[in-house]
Design goal:
single chain; mainly beta; Porin; three-stranded antiparallel beta sheet; 27 strands
């Protein structure tokens, strides 16, 4: 068996190679109880990402992010792309302490850091009740993910990975569990393509606080989570602080035939940084006509159903929507009016996103799945206010359609 030089250290320690789920697993000869004292493995989730844009404003996006549809664009040209950037690599280790408790560490990365550059996904250490490092943010439900080819997910989905310190445990009834987490604040901020509320990013001073409770059964689970945030931004060199908060209800139901139903409903104010389609776009808060910051109200949800037609052939359908409003906005910079840039609003700006997917997945053989998928999304933007003392009411919408296909291979 040829071993990469990366694992030459294996030959210098009393470990043996054993056949496990991953292609390479290293285990210690000594054990604690029935388990090896130390075990480590390296694995790869390979994915070919191919997509053909039929029309719409997402030709330059690797994922089907309806929040990035340019509603003012007119280019409906078709385009075709193929890449392997969504391939993931994972290194994990398990260590059994003398008293039988287990400690595990995981490092996971992919090549989605831009032009195939590596990007850190996960890096954490976990014990019986604690997890420290970067993993899925506790506000989301890390077990959920619709079985789809495109990699963005529904616009209201919460799939943020952030550094954190998390405590988790069960109640007296072990079907019930809870989590308490301090999460690193999300401060990535990108200017609007269509509208800019002229807010500048500031240093954050407090972590996001998350609590969650979960009820688990053989058929799946129901989970309720909440988040409290302190958000700082500046406007005209004046720094302000406002609170964000939100709730998420999610769950999964599985049948004996492996069919499953998943859902997530989310709502709150000042939590758009956690939403798939608008994360990092500066929607958390905005200046109102009184020069105060308001947290942006948002509500959304998605649902998916996977049906196994045969043991190897299964189909998925996903629907999702998101709606958020900016009310009594002081000013918005409209990048689509070349002569008069400033619009002073005494009204509202509303964004709505709609998302739908249908696919077929075929498990060609063990560890390999091939998929063909139709993606459809629409974005609607409404704004009203005054431009040079003239009231305007602008409404724009645009849709996009994509065919996604490729394969996923696990080893």
């Amino acid at each position: 068996m040829k071993i990469s030089s990366l694992f030459v250290f294996v030959l210098l320690t009393p470990f043996i190679l054993v056949s496990q789920e991953r292609f390479l697993t290293v285990s210690s000869k000594d054990s604690v109880g029935s388990k090896p004292k130390f075990k480590s493995s390296l694995g790869v989730n390979m994915k070919l990402n191919a997509y053909y844009d039929l029309f719409g404003g997402l030709q330059d996006n690797e994922t089907f992010n309806v929040g990035k549809i340019n509603v003012f664009g007119t280019d409906d040209a078709s385009s075709f792309h193929v890449d392997m950037y969504q391939t993931q690599m994972k290194f994990d280790s398990n260590f059994i302490l003398k008293e039988g408790r287990e400690v595990k560490a995981i490092v996971e990365w992919d090549f989605w850091g831009g032009n195939g550059h590596m990007r850190l996904r996960k890096a954490y250490v976990e014990s019986e009740h604690w997890q420290i490092g970067q993993n899925w943010n506790a506000f989301g439900d890390e077990v959920l993910w619709p079985n789809i080819m495109e990699w963005e997910g529904p616009p209201s989905g919460i799939w943020v990975r952030s550094p954190h310190v998390k405590y988790f445990n069960t109640f007296k009834n072990k079907d019930w569990s809870y989590e308490i987490s301090l999460e690193a604040p999300i401060i990535d901020y990108v200017r609007f393509k269509e509208f800019d509320i002229l807010v500048d990013e500031e240093y954050q001073l407090a972590p996001d606080f998350v609590m969650a409770v979960k009820n688990s059964h053989d058929w799946g689970h129901i989970r309720l989570s909440s988040i409290l945030r302190s958000i700082r931004y500046s406007l005209d060199d004046k720094t302000d602080n406002f609170l964000g908060y939100g709730f998420s209800l999610s769950g999964i139901y599985k049948t004996k035939k492996r069919n499953n139903f998943q859902f997530q409903i989310v709502g709150g104010k000042g939590i758009t940084a956690y939403m798939t389609s608008v994360a990092g776009l500066g929607y958390d808060g905005y200046p109102n006509s009184n020069d105060k910051f308001d947290a942006t109200p948002i509500i959304g949800g998605w649902a998916s159903y996977e049906y196994f037609i045969t043991k190897k052939l299964h189909a998925n359908v996903v629907f999702g929507l998101t709606n958020f409003n900016l009310t009594d906005v002081k000013r918005i910079l409209d990048n689509n009016i070349p002569s008069e840039k400033f619009i002073v609003l005494e009204g509202d700006a509303t964004h709505s996103h709609y998302y739908g997917i249908f696919n077929f997945m075929y498990d060609a053989y063990e560890r390999m799945t091939i998929g063909l998928e139709l993606d459809y999304g629409a974005k609607k933007l409404d704004a009203n206010g005054y431009l040079n003392n003239t009231f305007i009411n602008e409404s724009k919408s645009r849709d996009a359609m994509r065919i996604s296909f490729g394969f996923m291979f696990y080893f």
